[in-house]
Amino acid sequence: MPSRRFVLIAAACLAAPLAAHAAGVMRFASVNFAAALEKGGPVLVHIDATWCPTCRAQKPILDRLLAQPKYAAVTAFSVDYDSEKPVMRELSAPERSTILVFAKGKEVARSTGDTSESAIAALIDKSL
Description:
Blueprint: H1 4-22, E1 25-27, H2 30-39, E2 43-48, H3 53-66, E3 75-80, H4 85-90, E4 98-103, E5 106-112, H5 117-125
Parallel strand pairs: 1-3, 2-3
Antiparallel strand pairs: 2-4, 4-5
C-alpha cells in the first residue's frame, strides 16, 4: 500500500504538467516541437527562467494572449533557461526572456526582453 507521502508526491508530479498545459504553454520536447512545425501552424517558444524578473513579467502576458480565441491555433512551448541549453543552442537563442514565433515551419520573428503586451501580441500575430 503506497504511503500518504508517496501519493502526495505523485499527485504533485502529475499536476505540474497538467497545470502548464492548462495555461496553454507546454514544456518543450523536441519531438512535439518538430511535430508542431511540421503541421505548419503557428508556434511560439518562450525561453524563461524562474528567477528572471522579465520572464515573470512575460508569463502572465503570454497566458492572457494565448487564452484569446484569436490565438487558439498557436502551439506554445516553454524552454527552461537553466536546464535546456542544448535546445537553446538548437534554436540559436542564448538569452532568457526570448520569445520566438514560427509560421509554416519557419521562424518568422523573435524578441528578447519585451514586456509590452501590444508588442508581444504583434510578435505573435506574425505567426498567424
